[in-house]
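Is this the right way to post structure tokens for a design question? Let me know if I should format differently. Anyway, here goes:
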């Protein structure tokens, strides 16, 4: 695990993932977002996703949240599926979730390529694959790490 993430998780609320559904509805109500569809789990990564839309006809973001750790991020929900969507810092959403005990890494960091020290935390084959595929830190964090 990434050292900074391990440190951040010691300060995060370990019970936050259990409240995700309730907090999603509270967030939508308080900040004016609409939940689109349902909360979908990915059985391979233990990450759940939920699409949120701001106002009528507004932009859409996809929330990605672990089922067992209070770690989440936001991506562009309208991005074509051929590549992974870029990570975003939607105004208001990041701070709202951080105030409720979630670790929400900065989108600029998530969209960056992992450095050698970060890749060294992966098995050699996975590190080579990540470099070859051009995976960002966010892709690794929410799909592999």
């Amino acid at each position: 695990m990434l050292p900074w993430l391990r440190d951040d998780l010691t300060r995060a609320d370990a019970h936050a993932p259990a409240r995700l559904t309730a907090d999603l509805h509270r967030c939508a109500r308080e900040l004016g977002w609409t939940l689109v569809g349902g909360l979908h789990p990915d059985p391979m990564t233990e990450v759940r996703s939920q699409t949120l839309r701001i106002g009528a006809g507004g932009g859409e973001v996809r929330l990605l949240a672990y089922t067992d750790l209070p770690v989440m991020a936001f991506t562009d929900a309208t991005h074509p599926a051929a590549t992974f969507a870029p990570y975003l810092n939607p105004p208001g959403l990041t701070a709202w979730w951080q105030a409720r005990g979630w670790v929400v890494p900065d989108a600029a960091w998530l969209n960056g390529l992992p450095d050698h020290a970060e890749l060294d935390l992966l098995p050699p084959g996975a590190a080579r694959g990540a470099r070859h595929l051009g995976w960002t830190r966010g892709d690794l964090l929410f799909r592999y790490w």
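Format looks fine. Someone answered above. Worth noting: The chain has a mean pLDDT of 89. Residues 20-31 form the longest helix (12 residues).
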